[in-house]
Amino acid sequence: MKNNYHTHTTRCFHAEDSDESYVLSAIKGGIKELGFSDHSPWNYHSKFTSRMRMGLQDFDDYYKSIRHLKEKYKDKISIKIGLECEYFPKYMNWLTTFVQQKKIDYIILATHFEGSDEDGVYYGYACDYNKHLDTYIENCKKGIETGLYSYLAHPDLFMRGRNLFDDYAAIKTRELCEFCKEHNMPIEYNLEGVLVNEMYGTQGYPHPMFWKIASEVGNDVIIGYDAHKAKSLERLDLYDDAYEYLKSLDMNVIETIPYRF
Ligand SMILES: [Zn+2]
Ligand SMILES: [Zn+2]
User: Fold this and answer.
1) Domain for residue 258, yes or no?
2) Which residues surround the ion ligand 2 when the cut-off is CB under 5 Å?
3) Contact 258, 220 (CB under 8 A)
4) Which residues constitute the domain of residue 215?
5) Do the domain assignments include residue 260?
6) Residue 261 within any structural domain of the chain
7) Which listed ligand is nearest to 36 at the C-alpha?
8) Which of 76, 149, 217, 250 has CA atoms 20 to 30 A from the CA of 207?
9) Which residues contact residue 97 at a Cβ distance below 8 angstroms, ignoring those fewer than 6 apart?
10) Residues 72, 22: contact at Cβ < 8 Å?
């Protein structure tokens, strides 16, 4: 059985292809349950508009479109409606109400920005500085403590801009992995990261040193495509290689997500 709960749409401005083409590719790729989790909108207090997530005005169309596809393909694939959300402290009351009012199935936690994306640094590039790595880990932990999120996406995002996985990175990784384990929070092995590494010959995330520590801690892990193109969902080889790799580390690979609200 293969499921994927990390899928984007063009509403976030950096993904391609129609909603329906993701469903068709997922069916082709042998996926049994497909969760859409586009970058969530926020009800910003400022005039800021994000160029990497859907606007609040686009949410209803997102929901309607996926609900339509869920019905249309119900005999071929199970579809869930989710969102990929940050932990933005000042907007958490709003988010908590929003996801319940809108009857979203689940949300996943992804930490990209310090504070919020209105003025915070992007962790993907900032974490060469230990002070940003510290707040990255802190932010993930605060998010997990809310009990709202089904899993932590690309927990090792901080390695995208960090030069070395040094002793300090190892200490902070262990701290995060142990916290996730205590809180029954699965962590994601991110296949979009694998594609980026493959394409640019880089070693951002997933980072082998991170996953070695996660295997020692004994975290539950879920494989997520983080698809920004429909065709990514047809890359069976990516999923199979990840599965083999995680199994070789003796990790518990889970196929379904916990629902929190
Ligand atoms: Zn994205
Ligand atoms: Zn994503």
Assistant:
1) no
2) 84, 226
3) no
4) 3-253
5) no
6) no
7) 2
8) 149
9) none
10) no
For residue 189, the CA-to-ligand 2 centroid distance in Å is 12
Ligand with the closest atom to the CA of 37: 2
Predicted confidence (pLDDT) per residue in 15-73, tens digit: 999 999 999 999 999 999 999 999 999 999 999 999 999 999 999 999 999 999 999 99
Token pair for residue 209? 């040193």
How many domains are contained in the chain? 1
pLDDT at residue 125 is higher than 90: no
Candidates 119, 118, 58, 113; CA nearest to 83 is 58
Distance, CA 186 to ligand 1 centroid (Å)? 20
Q: Identify the nearest ligand to the CA of 84 by its number.
A: 2
- Whole-number percent of the chain with pLDDT over 90: 97
Residues 6 or more apart whose CB falls under 8 angstroms from that of 164 comprise none
